């Protein structure tokens, strides 16, 4: 074992043409950059984060976070590049190493841009300020995915050219093959254009409560092919964009109010005076309720039903949120019950009375 260790310098010179001293220096260079990477991340990035946190805009914070991991990887790759260049392993290897290093820079920049495009802010904040645009929650992720795709495609093309691959023929072939692909995947193309129509027309936004055909729920996401809707039973439904683009959509979130419409049936034994008092008290209660829209409130004695005297109760809550709507409706129902109890009026239920023209006579068991 000692003989092998003593002969390491001779073996390295014989097979690699490099002295053990140069190999040790190269390894040392690499480890210095690994140590430098930790210093940069631990101190320099933390110091920069303190400065960016004091600014009003979140753009600089997002840029710093997006390029943190690429910068850390770049320092390690740069250390590896310098250590291998120091070894001087030949012209062919050095040329390959240079191409690898340049390609790594391209990939790392694309990585940082990819992360940054996921945060939306730097792009859409500047667009909004310059062109006075109000970007909604659908446009942001949709355009972000397009930019991410273009970033990846551009990075792959530049790296391929760096290694002397001719990508012009491939790009030209996309024009010819595009027609065949479009015909074979016409449904997918229809979904993409359906997504574009939804974005341009803006019938709903992410987080809106919508209903379409037999589907009702909250919009969670929209992508190139489909829109994801979370139903109130917590099921996730994926709807093709072409279907949504061609169907009528009801956006419950944009109306701001929600209707409550029902008939309250009381018994026929209720006197006229008590019935009128109940109508007046319920109407007054709705007018004074802070969560009821005052524009349209109707409380009227509506009709003589088969087994009840029906009072029409018609009003709108000031919110379209499903949970808040149910809470307001519940509170009003309890107050209606209190009014009926105060007036000693009973709620009717479906019933039928039978009258006999002749009095029925019961027979004794002894007879």
TrEMBL record:
GO terms for biological process: transmembrane transport. It is found in: Cell membrane. Residues 187-254 form the Mechanosensitive ion channel MscS domain. Pfam families: MS_channel_1st, MS_channel_2nd, MS_channel_3rd. The chain crosses the membrane at residues 12-36, 74-93, 105-124, 145-161, 167-185. It is a multi-pass membrane protein. Keywords: Cell membrane, Membrane, Transmembrane, Transmembrane helix. Coiled coil: none annotated. Residues 261-346 form the Mechanosensitive ion channel MscS C-terminal domain. The keyword Secreted does not apply. Residues 145-186 form the Mechanosensitive ion channel transmembrane helices 2/3 domain. One of its GO terms (cellular component) is plasma membrane. Belongs to the MscS (TC 1.A.23) family. This is Mechanosensitive ion channel protein. It comes from Thermohalobacter berrensis. The lineage of its organism: Bacteria, Bacillati, Bacillota, Tissierellia, Tissierellales.
């Amino acid at each position: 074992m000692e003989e092998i260790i003593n002969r390491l310098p001779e073996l390295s010179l014989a097979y690699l043409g490099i002295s053990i001293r140069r190999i040790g220096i190269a390894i040392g260079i690499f480890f210095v950059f690994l140590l430098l990477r930790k210093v940069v991340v631990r101190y320099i990035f933390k110091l920069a984060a303190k400065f960016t946190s004091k600014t009003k805009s979140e753009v600089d914070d997002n840029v710093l976070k997006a390029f943190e991991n690429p910068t850390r990887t770049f320092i390690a790759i740069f250390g590896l590049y310098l250590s291998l260049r120091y070894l001087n392993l030949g012209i062919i290897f050095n040329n390959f190493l240079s191409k690898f290093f340049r390609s790594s820079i391209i990939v790392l920049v694309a990585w940082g841009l990819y992360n940054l495009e996921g945060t939306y802010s730097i792009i859409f904040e500047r667009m909004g300020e310059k062109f006075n645009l109000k970007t909604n929650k659908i446009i942001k992720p949709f355009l972000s995915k397009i930019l991410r795709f273009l970033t990846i495609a551009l990075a792959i093309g530049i790296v391929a050219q760096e290694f002397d691959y001719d990508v012009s023929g491939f790009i030209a072939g996309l024009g010819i093959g595009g027609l065949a692909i479009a015909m074979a995947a016409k449904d997918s193309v229809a979904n993409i254009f359906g997504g574009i129509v939804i974005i341009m027309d803006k019938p709903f936004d992410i987080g809106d409560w919508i209903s379409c055909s037999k589907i009702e729920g909250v919009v969670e996401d929209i992508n190139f092919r489909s829109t994801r809707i979370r139903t109130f039973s917590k099921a996730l439904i994926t709807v093709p964009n072409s279907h949504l683009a061609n169907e009528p959509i009801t956006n419950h979130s944009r109306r701001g109010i929600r209707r409550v419409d029902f008939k309250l049936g009381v018994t026929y034994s209720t006197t006229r005076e008590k019935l009128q008092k109940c109508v007046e008290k319920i109407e007054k209660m709705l007018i004074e309720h802070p969560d009821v829209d005052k524009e349209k409130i109707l409380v009227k004695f509506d009709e003589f039903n088969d087994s009840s005297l029906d009072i029409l109760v018609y009003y709108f809550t000031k919110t379209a949120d499903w949970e808040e709507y149910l809470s307001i409706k519940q509170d009003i129902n309890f107050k209606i019950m209190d009014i009926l109890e105060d007036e000693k009026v009973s709620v009717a239920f479906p019933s039928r009375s039978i009258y006999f023209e002749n009095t029925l006579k019961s027979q004794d068991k002894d007879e």
